[in-house]
Specification:
Two copies of one chain form a homodimer. Chain A is built from nine helices and no strands. Chain A is mainly α. In chain A, helix 4 packs across helix 6 and helix 8 packs antiparallel against helix 9.
Chain lengths: ~210, ~210
């Protein structure tokens, strides 16, 4: 009788092993060999999904793209205290405030570096990354101005709101950058404060009054 | 008779070779061996300054720190058209709008990565990088509000202005990040437009009216 492999379950097992390694040992510690050891699966089973460090990064990139939307959905479902607070919480899912989010950022940056040095190979990931961030910041703008939130505002909002979404996008990327550019200089609290200050500025430009 | 070596001249020759390589071939192309070939100097002369790829990056980092202030001084000396335009030009010296500035950014990011993975070795560069950006954005704020510009405002400005400097700092880093995170998505014109929009926002918060 042929053995039946639950590919989805196996994929999840491998994904968990990859995350544990990335969070514990960083990019340098996440080799194909380490994933084999960490997951307890056979080398052959692992190599079905990736065989090089670059492929491993791409696999990790796909996990991000699959899991982050669920987290955001969770935040959107929370009966948040006020619009500005909810918008901040959405954006905070994307900035490096804990190990998980720091790892997500490092994987995204590593994939951007792959695409920069070998154009074309990771084009889809990069384009989806930029588009995904913009969808998220559109959601944050809709939350800020108290509009009904559709889950995937993939089309640009009307001009004033789209401009606000672009500003929040630049803000979130700036906060990520300051963590990357100045290791050890800024605490998660510093990053969170910058994000909240920026959201307040964008909200004020949209005529949203902060709740005290 | 002993040979007299003009160390400063040699250092400049090597620096030029390193820059040519970095601009032409990127970080991966800038090996110690490539610098020997590019500079026409002996291997021994090169190895007086650096012997590994990491040391080469540190040498390139020192060149940035030596040369960027001169460029900024040049911008400050220009009789700029209006304060907002001059502030934008200052910040534009730091964002990846051409090969030289893209290379500077890559070197800074590579040194940050070295410090992140081996804490303590490049601490001084990272701290100077954060402090240097803040001095620059303080200059931009002083220019924006029409104040006399001292060349090294190393101490925080008064609260409202220091907050504006922090916002411009985050803005400049965000623009750099969007170039790094989304290779091929944003043009130099996009980056410049984001920077100018952000400067206008900060200026407006300071009560500076844009000149039409």
């Amino acid at each position: 009788m042929p053995r039946i492999v639950d590919h989805e379950q196996r994929r999840r097992d491998i994904a968990r092993a990859v995350w544990r390694l990335l969070e514990r040992d960083g990019l340098r510690g996440a080799s194909v060999r380490a994933v084999v050891a960490e997951s307890g699966l056979s080398s052959g089973a692992i190599r079905h999904y990736f065989s090089t460090q670059d492929d491993l990064l791409r696999f990790a990139g796909r996990i991000i793209r699959d899991e982050v939307p669920d987290r955001l959905l969770g935040v959107l479902k929370e009966p948040g205290p006020d619009p500005q607070e909810r918008a901040c919480r959405l954006l905070e899912e994307l900035v490096p405030l804990d190990d998980r989010r720091r790892t997500e950022l490092l994987v995204a940056v590593a994939l951007a570096e792959l695409e920069r040095t070998s154009p074309g190979q990771d084009r889809e990931f990069i384009d989806a990354s930029h588009a995904g961030l913009r969808v998220l910041t559109r959601l944050a703008v809709l939350v800020l101005v108290g509009r009904a939130v559709e889950l995937t505002p993939v089309d640009p909002l009307e001009p004033g709101l789209e401009e606000a979404a672009a500003r929040l996008h630049l803000l979130a990327d700036g906060v990520c950058a300051q963590h990357l550019f100045y290791p050890g200089v800024l605490t998660p609290e510093d990053l969170r404060a910058s994000l909240r200050d920026g959201v307040e500025q964008v909200g004020a430009a949209l005529g949203v009054r902060p709740t005290d």
